[in-house]
Amino acid sequence: MRKTFSITFAGLILAATVVFSQIAPVDEPAVCYECHVDISDLGNKAHVHGAFESGKCSDCHNPHASKHAAMLADNEADLCLSCHEDINIQLALSSVHQPARNGECGKCHLPHASDFPAVLSHETTALCASCHPQVSAWMEKEAVHTPVEGGECLTCHAAHGSANEQLLSEQVPVTCFNCHEQDQAFSSAHQGYDISNSNCATCHDPHAASLPKLLRPNQHSPFKGGKCTVCHLSSGGDSFAIKGTTTELCTKCHRAVSEFEKKPFHGHLNLEGSCTTCHNPHASATTDLLAAKQEVLCMSCHFNATGEKEKAAYITHDGMDCSNCHTPHGSDNEKYLTSIDIDLCAGCHEAAHRSSHPIGEDAIDSRSGQPLTCLGCHQLHGADFEKYLPLNPAMDLCIQCHKK
After folding, report:
1. DSSP label at 143?
2. 229-256, pLDDT tens digit by residue?
3. The whole model's pTM is what?
């Protein structure tokens, strides 16, 4: 029996060898170009993908059948990363460009050839503006940062991934000082202060501005007047020491804010740095000298530890700021709410539930034994259903109370 098996197995190998030897070699890419005539002309482009230039179409495409678009041999991300292994390292960094994170290489690059370096689908400015529409608005500003004006986004940003926020190639101010020499003129413009470790973007817009020197439009009065010593101890040198604590210094002028310390909830005022946690003491692109737009600023601390949803899912009430419902400095109510219970919502939703579900003193929430408020059915942030409902209103929400 063993002898019979050996003979049979040897015969199969021999047959396979004969069949394999009879497979005619394929003249790639000539045989492919017989049908894909339009692809053959791409070799004349200024920038040709190395894989395409090699003429081995089958390195990327399956010539017979595939479960991937364009007959690719694998999904787009894995196929590209099989050669571009260095990109894998960048994808593991803390800040990753969204198309790269999603494995959408084709959003920026063409697979065969291009008129632009790195086989990009468009020149850099147009390519970036296709996802970042603010780029077009920057170009209309009176002062445009030279790299932005020249479409050199990669002078400051990494294309795929970075260890720094905003995909910066290096941290600020290192990335700034790569171009801006810290000479005598630079020192004089900053009144002799040593800003070699400062965040330049707190005063200057890194892309474009309506003011010279890319200064941010909303400026603190002492900063605007060049009166640094109103807040700082000296007019130059390597120290930015201020005259007292942040709270003491700010409330000398902003006395009304100190009144919030008398409120039951005023924890923000007790933070280290207090005012400067949220405000930029020099200049800002937002009102009230905020360090960022409210939705960005507030979310930098809030909803950090939930891990349940993307942060954007918690931003509700389109067109409204967080301060429409919360008072940022202090409040008589928990969560810094401007008011509580029905009054919080009735300021905008005055007619809600006048002829539908009862709320108020005459409607007791069976779960708490307290009068039913808007928050008994609606939640302020991160709701999964319309009308800010946390559960399906078809049944799941209602049976929380109506069990019979």
Report:
1. E
2. 889 887 655 567 888 888 889 989 999 9
3. 0.76
